[in-house]
Write a structure and sequence with these properties.
CATH topology: Alpha-Beta Plaits
Number of domains: 1
Structural class: alpha+beta
Helix content: 40-55%
Largest sheet: 9 strands, mixed
Number of strands: 9
CATH architecture: 2-Layer Sandwich
Length: 233
């Protein structure tokens, strides 16, 4: 199945984004668009504006999740839990944007970030961990996170209907990063061998911070594949 099709509804969505970016006045809203609630993260929004979807692109993904969230968040009063998650997400989001990345999804007490650069993604992961370690909250100890990194080919497309559309990032590299997240202790950063090899080429000093974690890691859903993982302790 080709990644680009003439009838792809994302082409219309991309045209809407391009028109909005280039217009001096707010564009007229059609009846259909008035009922469409579309989430367009920044980098993906640019892809939508420039090309028909779906398209295939290499991206680095970074999963960030609050460690021990049941004790840290769930057992708090709802208002306190919301404030904690908001503080966490503010740090994560600001650092991602500062490193030329963006947020694909906020999911519960975690987030999926994506970057075009492996180096910037790794720098963001380290910066997020350091920032959380310095952050004091009124109701708890500093928040700790688990972080996982992977890079690979991702298909970017639009899913949903005209009433509710969203951008999807689909690829095994994302699933692998999600599985890796559960392998690292609180405060740790885990990465695939592919990430570390790329860092050795692009940012050797940064690559040296990653140490071998497991050379033959078995992950759920990857039964025929042993993963070599590295981590920053």
């Amino acid at each position: 199945m080709p990644l680009k099709t003439e009838q792809d509804p994302a082409a219309t969505l991309g045209a809407e984004v391009a028109a909005t970016n280039g217009a001096s006045e707010p564009p007229a809203v059609s009846q259909v668009a008035a009922h469409a609630h579309t989430f367009l993260p920044g980098l993906v929004g640019n892809y939508l504006a420039q090309q028909e979807l779906p398209l295939r692109k290499e991206l680095t993904v970074l999963f960030v999740d609050i460690a021990d969230s049941t004790a840290t968040v769930v057992h708090q009063p709802p208002e306190v839990a919301l404030a904690l998650v908001q503080s966490f997400m503010e740090v994560v989001t600001n650092i991602a944007l500062a490193h030329c990345g963006d947020v694909k999804d906020y999911e519960g007490d975690g987030a999926l970030l994506y970057f075009e650069s492996v180096t910037e993604a790794a720098q963001a992961a380290l910066a997020i961990r350091d920032a959380l370690a310095r952050m004091q909250t009124a109701h708890s100890d500093p928040l700790q996170a688990r972080l996982s990194l992977n890079v690979g080919s991702v298909v970017i497309g639009v899913i949903g209907t005209t009433l509710r559309r969203s951008v999807a990032l689909i690829g095994p590299s994302i699933n692998l990063a999600a599985r890796l997240l559960k392998q690292v202790p609180p405060g740790g950063i885990i990465a695939t061998e592919t990430v570390v090899e790329r860092l050795r080429q692009e940012a050797p000093d940064l690559a040296q911070q990653f140490h071998l974690w497991n050379a033959h890691l078995e992950l759920k859903g990857f039964h025929n594949e042993l993963v070599t993982a590295f981590h920053v302790p």
